[in-house]
Amino acid sequence: MAALAVLNSTSRVQPCTRHLVLAALAQQRTFATVTDTSTDTPGPSTSTKEWQPGSRRTGLIAIKRGMTSLWDDNGVRIPVTVLQVDNCQVTATVSIRKKAQREWYHGVQVACSDKAERKTTKAMQGHFAKAGVPNKRMVHEFEVTKDALLEPGTTLSVAHFVPGQFVDCTGTSIGKGFQGTMKKWGFGGLRASHGVSVSHRSAGSTGQHQDPGRVFPGKKMAGRMGGDTITTQNLYIVRIDTALELIYVKGCVSGHDGGYVFLRDAVRKMHQDSMVKAAKGVEPVLPVATLPFPAGTAELAKTLPPIVNAPTLERDPFLAKE
Question: I need a surface site. Which of 18, 77, 198, 226 has the fewest CB within 10 A?
């Protein structure tokens, strides 16, 4: 709640123009052509590269802090979910060849939220010590391309995402226990007046006659509801706060407040659309072309303003094409 109070106090900050962000990104990297071949030997690369339509960056682990509201220049209310990046660092990289295939699998293991040594197993203490990072509470691995591998110990920040782009958020939905068919599946129920004796919210008949005389697998019936891993795609990033390490995402994200959420670049809207445009010879849209590559580090966040806003929804050319 204290974090939301700080957010509400800064909700009317004047939006930062996009050219300030682009200038900061230009100071941090040198553009070069990169080609990712599946036959290359694995391993992280130390040279600075440019994001390509086929590149796939690592994601971030964030903590859901709640929801609040922002207002654009036209006074339109924007409901946003506040996500906090808590000391997110790279702990390991993985490069293996899949069985019976020629392709290499590349992954970046990311961990966040420092954890006390007495609450960490000996095996994980050695793993984190090898990476040169403190003990962490949450560990997750993101699949990446070869040109997006990072050195262990790299600290990631909210500058990894550019306001105006789209992300996919994965979280564990709130568990609701054992529920009936009306709540879980939206069944209409039975008659609530005459002819139905104390079975108003019943599912009704579930089987058939003698042939086949059974209930088919997959039938929608009463059961446990919630507690599943839900991925919400194509969420718009409205603002990033480099001072408090906060990400403002338009809309709702699955999970309870205080739960962990995995964020990464939107697969459908950014990667697939960009690859189609690249095949047609069309330049990718601005939020995609200006992504920090291979990742947005803490050093990059120090060069940006404390609060960076996305363009207003009416003026954003990326949303105007939808």
Answer: 198
